Each structure stands twice: as structure tokens, then as C-alpha cells.
């Protein structure tokens, strides 16, 4: 009885969010792990010999398996349930870390990272679903901001610990994140939304009230009534050709335009420096700042800066227009890349000025743009530009594209450094950033302060019919919205606007 009085619904929501956050921390450690692993493998007494090809595969194999995890995530999350999917994520992450700890070959390291990538791919789909379904709308925005903060802190943590300890001991410490999460998952309930889709209404009520208390019972009963209505209508429906339905969706401007925007936004994110610096920071800092600087100090310093500016970005992004934020951080990112390329080129061709403050300023400027814009903005815009009824499909395509671009950037980086040097690599990246920034600014409408319906209408080119407007009265995807949308599409007056 005392438990019910002392443990508030908010504390319970914090608990279930923390279980998700620990797995996000674990995956962020995996992303940043090559930065401390690869330099140690290059040492003379390393037990694992390292070639250039092996170096690039260790860093980039994560992205390929991340892609695989993204593709199978929906089937696991929807078929087995949120809690079971969370168990699977933690167990796969644990196995991946243990293989890494015990690795005595490059193949074993790659196998460990592949498993970690599959876990991360599942997590990238599940994390927002879990936080969104477990938490109250009053706290949901704050809880969702913990995703980017956990990512930044995880990279900082692994770089800090890896600067002091061997890569095996660092991996041994990191394994505790998914292990503790696994223990916490035991004490978290199944998602009330998933229980609802399976017709387990009594369990849904019990879990919903455990998480939210009794103050939001009206929302609970509306959800249950809506689901029953949807299930009743679904029995009457004839099966449709899924391929034809998918083709119909792809042809809609309100679907393919957001997809194009997100592909270019993800390209901006992956080539702006956050991805390559997480994995190759010691290499980049050594080439940029010279062999005499303490690269581990600067690596941890930049990670600390990233956490600080990620936190500030949560405040700033909510108050500044989206296009302005993309323009400002995008232009600054392009400028910092060109400036670094020019500085390195000049130093290699006779310029004798080698004061450390100048390259330090340039790399800090690059990291500022990553933390403030090129990393968080794709997540913000991705949550706004997709129509509600296509959000799951659009998010899957967006995450898949992001993983593919991540693999390309990580796999090609060592080869670019060998062939054109750091200045050539940064010049290529600057051109890629500039082209994608221009395309995004051409395609992206201003979304701040607009409803999801207004944004969709802008992509579509004209407002929706009355029936379509009815289907999107709620900002959250729900059975009522789906039901009304399907009913409206049956009426002759509700023609699809292309």
C-alpha cells in the first residue's frame, strides 16, 4: 500500500524510460568504440594485427547490421510485443559486447559489432515507440529529448574510459549498460497500446493505470472504444493487394517528398563529422592538430562540448524556425569543413604557423554545428514531415537510408585519407554537405508552429477533403484515425489528391 503512495506515475515513467536510456547508452558506446579500439590495435604489442581494410570493416560493419536491424524491427515489435523486443535488444547487445571482450581476431571483433548493430537497429525503431507509449503526453517531450543526450553521453563515456584503460577493460565496463537494462525490463510492464491491439483490454487498463494513474482514464476508455470499433470494421474488410497499396502510397507527393527530404537530411548528418569523429577521432585530431598534441584529451573535450550543446539545442530548437536552424548550422558546417581543408593544405605546403588554437577552434566549430543542428534536426524534422498514416513506413525508409549512408561514410573514410589526405577528404565532405543543404532548403517547408495536417497539405499542394481532415484530429496515430481514414477512402467524394 505504501508503494502506491510513494512511487508516483511520473517516477514509474522515469523508470521505464531509464531502461530504454541504458540501451541507448550501450549503443552509443559501440558507435564510439572504434576511436579507442583502432589506435590500440595499431600498437606493436597488439594481439590482433590490423590492416587498412580490417580497420574500415571494423568501423563500418556496424552500419550494415544496423540496416538489417531496422528492416526486421517492425515485425518483432508488432508481432512479439514491446517488452519482448526490448529483451531481445538487451540480450543481443550483451552477446555482442561479450564477443568483443573475448575477441582475439579481426573476424571476432566484426562479429561482435554486427550483433551490436542488429541490436542498435532494433533499438532505433523501438526507443521512440516505447517512450511514446509508456509516458504521459505531459512529460513525453522531455522524455524523448533524453535520446540524443544518451547518445552524446555514451560516446563521451567510452572515449573517456578508453583513454584510461585498454579496449578489453572498456568493453567490460560498457557491458553493464545492457545488463542493468535487462534487469530493469523484468520490472517493466508490456505496453498498454500493444495489449490493446491484441484485445487484452483488462491488462491494458491495469498497465495504463500503473503507468499513468487514474487521471487519464478518459483517454484510456476512448482508446479501448476506438480499438473495438476498428476491430469490428476490420472483420468486414476484404483483403487488399499489399503491393498495389504500397505503390499507391509511394505515388503521393505528401509521402515521397518527405522521403527525399529525409534522405538528404540524413546525408547532412552522416557527413557533417559526428559519425566519422565518433569512430576515427584520434586519426582526425592527429592529422589536424599535429603529432605532439594529446589527442585523447581533445577527443574527450569535444565529446563534453557535444553534450553541452546538445542540451542547449533542446531549448533552442523549440524556439527557432526549422529552416533557419537548418540554414544556419548547415552553412556553418560547410564553412568549417572548407576552413579545415584550407588550413591542413596550407600547413602541408609550407605554412609554418602551427599554433594549436587555430585547428582547435576549427574542429570545435565543426562539433558545434553537429551538436546544435546536423545531428538533432533530422530527428526533429523526421517527426514532423511524414503523414500520420504513413509514419511507420516513412520512418523505416528514413532509418534504412541513414544506415546505408553511415556505412558509406565510415567504409570510405580510411581510403579517402590515404588517397587525398585530410584536406581532400574534408573538401569532398564540404561539397557533399553544400549540395545536400541546397536541396533540403529547396524541398523543406517551414514546419515550426504548424499542425501535421497543415504540413501534409503543403506537400500535397492542396488541402485534404473533409473526411481526410477528420482522420487526423489527433497528433497520435490511433485506431479511430485509421478507421475514419479507411472509411473516407471508400466514398466516391474522397478521391486521393495527388
Automatic annotation (TrEMBL):
PROSITE patterns: MFS, PROKAR_LIPOPROTEIN, SUGAR_TRANSPORT_2. It comes from the Eukaryota. One of its GO terms (molecular function) is transmembrane transporter activity. It is found in: Cell membrane. GO terms for cellular component: plasma membrane. Residues 14-448 form the Major facilitator superfamily (MFS) profile domain. It holds the Pfam family Sugar_tr. Signal peptide: none annotated. Keywords: Cell membrane, Membrane, Sugar transport, Transmembrane, Transmembrane helix, Transport. It is a multi-pass membrane protein. The chain crosses the membrane at residues 14-37, 57-77, 84-104, 110-130, 142-164, 170-188, 324-345, 357-378, 390-410, 422-444. This is Major facilitator superfamily (MFS) profile domain-containing protein. It comes from Euphydryas editha. The lineage of its organism: Eukaryota, Metazoa, Ecdysozoa, Arthropoda, Hexapoda.
Amino acid at each position: 500500500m505504501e508503494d502506491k503512495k510513494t512511487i508516483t506515475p511520473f517516477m514509474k515513467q522515469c523508470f521505464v524510460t531509464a531502461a530504454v536510456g541504458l540501451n541507448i547508452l550501450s549503443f552509443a558506446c559501440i558507435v564510439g568504440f572504434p576511436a579507442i579500439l583502432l589506435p590500440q590495435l595499431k600498437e606493436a604489442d597488439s594481439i590482433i594485427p590490423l590492416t587498412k581494410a580490417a580497420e574500415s570493416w571494423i568501423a563500418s560493419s556496424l552500419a550494415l547490421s544496423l540496416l538489417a536491424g531496422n528492416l526486421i524491427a517492425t515485425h518483432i515489435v508488432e508481432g512479439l510485443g514491446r517488452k519482448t523486443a526490448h529483451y531481445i535488444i538487451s540480450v543481443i547487445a550483451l552477446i555482442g559486447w561479450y564477443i568483443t571482450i573475448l575477441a582475439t581476431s579481426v573476424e571476432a571483433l566484426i562479429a561482435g559489432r554486427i550483433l551490436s548493430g542488429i541490436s542498435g537497429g532494433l533499438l532505433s525503431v523501438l526507443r521512440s515507440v516505447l517512450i511514446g507509449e509508456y509516458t504521459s503526453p505531459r512529460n513525453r517531450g522531455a522524455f524523448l529529448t533524453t535520446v540524443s543526450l544518451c547518445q552524446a553521453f555514451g560516446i563521451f563515456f567510452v572515449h573517456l574510459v578508453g583513454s584510461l584503460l585498454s579496449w578489453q577493460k572498456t568493453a567490460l565496463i560498457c557491458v553493464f549498460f545492457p545488463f542493468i537494462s535487462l534487469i530493469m525490463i523484468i520490472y517493466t510492464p508490456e505496453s498498454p497500446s500493444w495489449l490493446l491491439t491484441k484485445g487484452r483490454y483488462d491488462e491494458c487498463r491495469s498497465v495504463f493505470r500503473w503507468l499513468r494513474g487514474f487521471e487519464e482514464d478518459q483517454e484510456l476508455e476512448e482508446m479501448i472504444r476506438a480499438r473495438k470499433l476498428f476491430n469490428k470494421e476490420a472483420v468486414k474488410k476484404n483483403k487488399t493487394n499489399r503491393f498495389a497499396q504500397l505503390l499507391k502510397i509511394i505515388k503521393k507527393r505528401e509521402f515521397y517528398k518527405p522521403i527525399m527530404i529525409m534522405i538528404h537530411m540524413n546525408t547532412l548528418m552522416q557527413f557533417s563529422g559526428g559519425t566519422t569523429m565518433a569512430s576515427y577521432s584520434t586519426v582526425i585530431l592527429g592529422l589536424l592538430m599535429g603529432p605532439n598534441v594529446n589527442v585523447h584529451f581533445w577527443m574527450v573535450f569535444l565529446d563534453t562540448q557535444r553534450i553541452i550543446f546538445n542540451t542547449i539545442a533542446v531549448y533552442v530548437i523549440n524556439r527557432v524556425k526549422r529552416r533557419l536552424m537548418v540554414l544556419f548550422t548547415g552553412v556553418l558546417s560547410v564553412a568549417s569543413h572548407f576552413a579545415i581543408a584550407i588550413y591542413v593544405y596550407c600547413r602541408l605546403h609550407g605554412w609554418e604557423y602551427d599554433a594549436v588554437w587555430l585547428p582547435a577552434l576549427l574542429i570545435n566549430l565543426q562539433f558545434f554545428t553537429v551538436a546544435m543542428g546536423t545531428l538533432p534536426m533530422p530527428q526533429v524534422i523526421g517527426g514532423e514531415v511524414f503523414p500520420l498514416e504513413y509514419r511507420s513506413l516513412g520512418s523505416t525508409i528514413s532509418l534504412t537510408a541513414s544506415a546505408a549512408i553511415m556505412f558509406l561514410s565510415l567504409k570510405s573514410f580510411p581510403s579517402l585519407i590515404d588517397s587525398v589526405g585530410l584536406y581532400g577528404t574534408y573538401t569532398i565532405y564540404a561539397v557533399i554537405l553544400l549540395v545536400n543543404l541546397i536541396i533540403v532548403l529547396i524541398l523543406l517547408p517551414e514546419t515550426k508552429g504548424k499542425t501535421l495536417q497543415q504540413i501534409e497539405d503543403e506537400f500535397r499542394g492542396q488541402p485534404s477533403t473533409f473526411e481526410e481532415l477528420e482522420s487526423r484530429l489527433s497528433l497520435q496515430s490511433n485506431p479511430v484515425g485509421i478507421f475514419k481514414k479507411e472509411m473516407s477512402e471508400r466514398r466516391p467524394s474522397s478521391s486521393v489528391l495527388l
